[in-house]
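seq/struct pair 1
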Amino acid sequence: MSALVLALALSVAEELYTTAEQEEKDLSLAAALHDYEASVAADPSNRWVLRANARARWLRERSEGDFAPLVRLERVRRDPTAQRDARAVEALAHDLEAFPPGEVRVEARMFVAESYLTLLGRPIDGERELDALLDEPGVKTKGDAAIRAQAASRLVDIAMARGDVAAGKRAAARAGSGSAQLGARVAQWARRRLLERASVAVLAIFVLAGGAAAGRRLRGARVTALGAFVAKAALICVYLATFAAVLAGSYEGGHTMPFVMLPLAVLPIAVVARAWALAGASSKGARALRAVFGVVAVAAAAFLVLDRIDVRYLESFGL
């Protein structure tokens, strides 16, 4: 008799689960929530209990407004063309302002923001929605925390793209539990931008100073000596670039471009340094100053190359 009762309970539980799945597909969400929970209650050991509990929890967390906001959002999310349709996205952006505060309004804002940013090419509108999302009242769910962290990260990306350090720091501070990690990322990026400006300044001063000295005093035999040096230096740099590229390419996943560009970036610095040495003062102090300046210029060029090509190399140095 007990076996028959268990079999009937299992049959009822599975039927309720199947019904709830169909109701969720049909956007009868209140009924789906009821039947998911009823399925678990009918037989807590049925094979669908984990899935039923998960779907019931997901629906409960988004039940504000008697499911009307979630139905509105799901209709758009289930339409494969909606995210590329400006009118559909604008209509959702308008309607979500009337949604009660909660998980659904947060998710709807994220949907609209991503549509504007990635598919519709409207970064200002996307940034506005992300700002509004982070101003939403907090909802104590993992999903809400994850979306807020994602929104803050997207705002940081936007700030970094336009070089706005202050905006990046403000966005990182709004990331909630992930603010420390995101703040560290922004701080690292800000340091790189400072080093970028310093590197450009160093190279500009180096070229101007060396070029001015060479322009004033490089004549006759010194020009011939510089020409011979350029030919040798070019051959050496091409050899180093080729050898380094082959060596890097021999390793799985090796990135050859930094090893190609570094010798090529050093070549003009070496030429300017040699021209400056031929035309400049010959005292020990002057030679030492030029040597130090040349080393700094090479470091600046290396930083710019790695910053443009693959920042992972800079990260290994803590930059």
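seq/struct pair 2
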Amino acid sequence: MKHKKLAPFSVYLLFSICLIISCSTTNTDSVAPQEIPANSSISTIFLINYTHPTNCFKVSYPVGWNVEEHQTSVTFNDPDDSGTIEILMENTGLILDAVSFENFINATEINWFGTYKNYQETGREIDVEKGYARLTKTLDWNKIPQNVFSVYQQKGKVIYWISIWENQVSSSSRQPIFDQVIESISYNSAYCEDLTPYQTLMPFTGLYNLFSMQLPLHWTHTSEKGNYFQIDTFLSPDSNAAIQNITYDDGKKITRGAADTIALDFLKELYAKDVVIPEARVQSDNSIRWIWKSPSGKFQGITFYETRGTSFLMLTMMYVNDQKEIYFPPLDAAISSYAIPK
């Protein structure tokens, strides 16, 4: 991809706690894009048809552009690197309502484009009834000013995310081509509703580099800091699932008994007073795992916690009871990627 970076619990959750996310991705930078040669002409550029291997969509792209194909996306790059077209599809597991659809868009814009220097949104058009949005922005990529516009199109349980990047010096000449590409897209979401929900992930590094993990790109990130704690939360667009990490350090060494008390206090204070813990287990790395549920709140979760000197770390995954099939895959991916430096 052209990018230098990439790939709610409303139900009784007292998410007055928010968090800060510092996310960076590991995609390799491409060579800095150049201006379109002065002798190039729109009339000499033709489009060729393309079908993604999943059959989830078809599109026409400029002849001669390089194609980078991935499991759930495709990227078309101008040979001189002055323009890029990206199409990505994300299975959300269920049809998002108007609020959830906009949450998806806002999270994507902040978590992805917001990481670039001089990022500024310049235009926004959203038609929630049609599940359609178009946003424009300017930003710097490899120190070169870019005009970028993104189209979000919801088709059933799938959201297609199309982004077009262009050097600002070239935008006026390429816009007609990009308009043709957008108009040529045809969607067949029935082929991709079996894709793993929310499988586009981004790296996240916690406070003081105490831990790192891979988290869903399209989930809302918030943060809250106190005198001795920081709480980082990722909330799904429909608020039916969340990933939350708590870092607590008051400068005093924490015993195992004190850690148990701190963990239980956080569970009851943040999620539900009636938390029930049917399973508690010591992991191979000496961390503690609790499987718990809230009968009154109709949601459940898994919590891991451990101590590092004076630091207490607590990671919690939670979801509405009847949404396990949708949210277990991204939550499991986050758990599997969780790492604490030695």
